Structure formats: structure tokens, C-alpha cells
Amino acid sequence: MSAISFDPTSGVWLLSTVRTSYAMRIDHTGAPCHLAWGPRLPLAAVGRLVPPHAGDVSSFEGRSPAGEELPVDGGARYGAPSLRVRFADGTRAFEWAHLDHRISEPAPGTTELALEFGDRHYPLAVTLHYRVHDDTDVIERWTVLRNTGREPIAVLRADSAAWTLPPRDDYRISHVTGQWSAEGLLHREPVPHGETVLTSRRGITSHHANPWLMLDAGDATEDRGEVWSAALAWSGGWHLTVQRTSDGRTAFTGGAGHDGTALPLGPGEEYTTPRFAALYTDRGFGGASRSWHAYVLAHVLPHPDETRPVLFNSWEATGFDVDETSQKELAAQAAKLGVELYVVDDGWFGGRRDDTAGLGDWAPAAERFPQGLGPLVEEVHRLGMRFGLWVEPEMVNPDSDLYRAHPEWVLHFPHRTRTELRNQLVLNFARDDVAEWAYTWLTRLVADNAIDFLKWDMNRAFSEAGWPAQEDGQDLLWTRYVLNLYGVIDRLRADHPGLRIETCSGGGGRVDLGILSRTDQAWPSDNTDAADRVTIQHGFGQIYPARVMAAWVTDVPNQLTGRSVPMRYRFHVAMAGVLAVGGDLAHWTQEELTQGAEMVARYKEVRHIVQHGTQHRLRGPVDDGPTAVQYSTQDRREVFVLVWQRAPRHGMPRPALRLAGLDPAARYRDAATGAVHHASVLTGYGITPELPAGDWSSTSLHLIRVDDEAVDDSGRSAS
């Protein structure tokens, strides 16, 4: 059976992924109707399924809020609509008219379905798109709207997709919340009756929520149980609405935008929503996470096979006090530590001496870099490292030459205060001239200085989100801003194929599948406290793989929390992702420099497992006991385990960690001790790693599969 098939007798379309099925058909009103999403089904069986709203209902109920592929505003529908439009004569209701469908194979291993509709009277075409790949259970969906008439249409809401779940006794939602420096805090709670809305109205993905969710029937665990999950590929304002209906159904819809905005769609114009990807698994929350990780590596990241280098960032070492001499000295120390990518953070340009001035004037400060950045870049390259630079292209300080020349370039409303956050305003990237300005200086900066890496920051949310010079600008900018941002990055990468980019927005304020499709790694949080990072990284890893998670080792007491934890613990926490160092190396003792170099070398031995392997959360940060995460190579020949514990309690037993995903017939050698373990024991009974005594203890375990002949009678490796 092909990945997408159609039965003309029953009118059913069936999407088949590696382990799951998804099915729909057109109902008697012409609306696309959901049938099934779950375990694999044959097409003949799907044809016998009954649509969830097919029965008679009370006149007070109307059509069920769950069960349509894209619920519209129109008819006897009272749930959260996925599509709301206002036609030129004021009519809002939309009525489906099915026109055609197309099944295509745009690339090897990829199949797409397009369901084409129009309104029964008005000139609006709506196409629902579905895409499946032969190596994942993730289904990608998006919607295309086209104004085929001669008058404008206002799009009040245009979600990418709606998803309906099968009936279960109860449902639970998993999602993350937080704030700046406390992102990614995982919550798992019952789905209340009515509507639950997750959203960002800030113009960015936001620190406070992330556009993904997981739903289970209340009984899923890390290793087993049904989970339905979805993630939106959009880096601006967004909303996800979960509905638990009075008739016992659960569904959700989501897309770009938020309440209070409308997208103008002029004659002949077309709008394509961002991708809203989703999956079903019966392998629990861990199974859902591993499916997402594999999908991001296979179908999202531009360079998934690359191994990310060990990075040093200058921010916590120097702050704004950046000059050529001190940076060369710091780079020399970083190279001795084993760093492979040296990044100069804020303070290198214009009149930037603190956060009150200089943003927008992107030329090296003459008194700090009298010959420009060239000599520093050359020295970093001579030391065997790549060179990176911090930029914040979307921002401007009022105290800058750029703002004095172009005050009209920022988001603003007439006769309203221009609110400053962090002493800066937001440049209106929806304007083509602003986007072109940003692209021009960025591509010149990279080319003229042989820059290998950009840390692209964005340190505040929108306010006064207006565009007075543009008709309907206050509605248009929310979408066009993000599309122009994507366009600048895409053009920049096309100009410089070797350039790599980290997405950052005051930490984790812009992490999503949309920005990750054009960047190489993400900064999860400005909070580098290792103890806090265990929880932040736990939430981050629910959807996003270790391959994209930048993690720094910084000095103690921590600049943000004032907490002091051992260097070993800080390194072990940062080794769970893309390792980086951010401390002031000039003040490290010789003992710290030696230990740091040893830990960097240790990470390089195992980073292929961490960055490209399969991740299992062996024990989450749920109590005073240890937290542990495991990584395994795809061929299961190598395993790497990290364990952290805050404060062990005397007399409390240490839990055995049962490893996962090993070859049950194999034996594994501990790379540090030479001890050999049977996989059946490691997975069935577990292992209790030895943790150093005291608070903030941590350890790692590297296991390598050995052949029978490589083990002597004592159970130790013969080598």
C-alpha cells in the first residue's frame, strides 16, 4: 500500500506512516471529516468507520466541535474555529465545496495529498495539504488560502490544521511554561472541559510557552501508553486551542497569529500557513520524544549530520568590555582548553559600551578594533578554532546613528509612546527596506571577516506593533515580519554555505521547528546555573534533540542565581547537549584549567553518541533522587549515561537505573573501569552508578559493546 491512498467507493483517504494510520473523508455537507488517527489500519477497515458527529443531536448542540479536519466559522458550529474569514460584504460564514484532490510524490520517500475546496458562493479557495515520509510517524499539515475574486478578504483566523483524537475516558495535556531564565518547565495535567489556549502574543515564539503539546489518555508513562503530539513550525505569534467537548471528544487546532489581528488577503493573493506537524505513538512520552528527535534530524535541520563543535562565548568573561587585545588573550586560553569555536559576544560594535546605546550601528568599534575584526579573526583561525560573532539585527537603541536616521523603521503607532525594553526598540522587519538593510550589512560582515558562526539574538518582545505607512500594517506585520526574517537568514546562508547560526532570543524565546529549519542550534536559556539547567533541559528535550541544545559551563557563584556547584557537575550537565564554555578563563586556577581540558576531551570522545544518538530519559528531575539520561548510537554499540543528584538524603536507597534500547544478547564494557556487563542485566535489573559523596554529585558512564572473544573468564575486557 502506498503512503497515501484513496478508496473511491467509500470516499476515504488513508495516510499510512511507519506505524500509524490517519484517515478522513468528505461528509454529506461537503466538509472534510476526520475518521481515524492511531494504530495501523487497512483501507477496507477504515471505510467502515463512522464520522464522530454523524448521529442526530439536539438543536441546542449543533455540530460537534471535534471531528472536522479544519472547523470553520459557519453553520451550527460553536467550537473554536480553525478558519474564520470576513468577505467584502460582511459575510463571515464559510461553506465547503469539495473540488478535487491530488496525490503526488515531490521527493523520494515523501508523499503529499492536497484536498481542494472552494466556498459555495464566495471567491475563496482553500487547499488542505498533508505530507508523510517513509521514515517517520510524523504527519505534516498546512493550509493554503487563495482569494480568487476582485475584492479583499479579511482572514480573521487561519490555522494550519485541526487534529481529532479518538474517544478515551480521560485526557491529559503535557506542555511547557516559564519566563525569561526559567524556560521549558514541564507540566502534565488533566484536560479541563471547554477550551484551553496556549499562545504567544509577543511576536516571538516566547519564553512563556512553546508551540507544542502532548495529549495522552491519562495513563501514559515514559515508556508506554498512547500519546498524540503536535508542534508548530512558526517563530512569531501563535495559538493552540485544545477542546474537551461535552460529547466526550478531545481535539485541538493551531496556527500562526493570535486574537485581535486579521490578515488582509487582496485579490489574487495567496496565504500559506506554517507547517503543523503531529504524530501518534503507543510508546509513551519517551517514544514521542524520540520520534520528534529523529524527525528534526531527518527533516528539519539544514545540516543534521554535522557534529557541533565545542564553543567558547565571551559574554560572562568580559561583558561589554570587548577589545582586540583581551579577546586574543582569551582565545589563546580557550584553544588550550580544547575549544573549537570562539564566539565574541555583545560589545564589539559602534558605541556599544552598555545596553543603552549602539544597537543598529554594526561596524567594529574603531578604538577597540583599530584594524577592524580581521586581526582577531585571523588569530582565532591560527589557533585552530572557528570564529563566531554575536549580532542582534532586529533591534535598535534610540541612542544610535541608525535610529537618528530612520526613526520610522521601528514598530510604532502615531501619538503613542514608543516603549523601550532593555533600552531598545524593535525594527520593523515586515518592511522590505529594513529587511534589505539587515541582509546587506550581515552578508558583508560575514564575507569581509571570514565569519564562521553567528549567534543571532533578539532581546525583547513586540510593543506598539504598528506600521503606520502601510495600509492594514498593524495586521499585516505579524506575518510578514517572520517571513522577512526567514528570508534574510535564507539569503545569508545561500551566500555563505559554510556559515552556521545559533537561534537565541534572550535565551529560549525563539525555539521552534520553523527557526530550526534554517539554523543549526538553539540557546535554551540565559540561565546557565547547572542546577536550574537540569529542569530547563528536561523540558527542552521533550521535542527538541540534544543535537540543537547549546549548554554552557560558566563560573560560580552563578551570575544569576548566586549558587555554587562543582565544576564536574557543571560539565556533566552541559555535556547533555552541545557543550560550550562561558567562564572567565583568566581567573580559572591551574587545577580548574586542567580539569576543564580533561572534561572537554571527555566530551569529544562521546559527543557523537549525544548529538546523533537515541535519547532515553531514565529518571526525570522529580525528587531528591538522581536524574539520569541515556544516549545510544543507532547501531547500539555505544551507550553514554549522565547522572546528576542535588542533595542525597542519608538512609534513602539509591535507585537502580534500568538502561534502555540495548542489544539484549550483547555485553558492554565500561570504558573507564573495564568491567563488563550483560545487556539483559542492565535493562532488566539495572545498574547503580557510583556517585561522589556530598551535594551536587554527578557521574557519567560510557559503555561499549564487546564481542564474546574480547572478554576473559573474569568478566573483564581482555584488552
Detailed description of the structure:
This is Alpha-galactosidase. Residues 30-261 form the Glycosyl hydrolase family 36 N-terminal domain. Its EC number is 3.2.1.22. It is an enzyme of class 3 (hydrolase). The protein has 719 residues and is of the alpha+beta class. The protein folds into three domains: 4-299, Distorted Sandwich (Beta-galactosidase, Chain A, domain 5), CATH 2.70.98; 311-611, TIM Barrel (Alpha-Beta Barrel); 617-710, Immunoglobulin-like. 20% of the residues lie in helices and 29% in strands. The strands form seven sheets. Strands 6, 7, 8, 9, 12, 13, 15, 16, 20 and 21 form a ten-stranded antiparallel β-sheet that branches. Strands 29-28-27-24-23-22-31-30 form an eight-stranded parallel β-sheet. A six-stranded antiparallel β-sheet has the order 32-33-34-37-35-36. The mean pLDDT is 95.
Question: What keywords describe this structure?
Answer:
alpha+beta; Beta-galactosidase, Chain A, domain 5; TIM Barrel; Immunoglobulin-like; 3 domains; 8-stranded parallel beta sheet; 13 helices; 29% strand; globular; Alpha-galactosidase; Alpha-glycosidase_related; EC 3.2.1.22
Mean pLDDT: 95
CATH topology (fold) name of the largest domain: TIM Barrel
Shape: globular
- Give the radius of gyration: 27 Å
Number of domains: 3
The helix count comes to 13
Catalytic activity: Hydrolysis of terminal, non-reducing alpha-D-galactose residues in alpha-D-galactosides, including galactose oligosaccharides, galactomannans and galactolipids
Protein name: Alpha-galactosidase
Keywords: Glycosidase, Hydrolase
EC number: 3.2.1.22
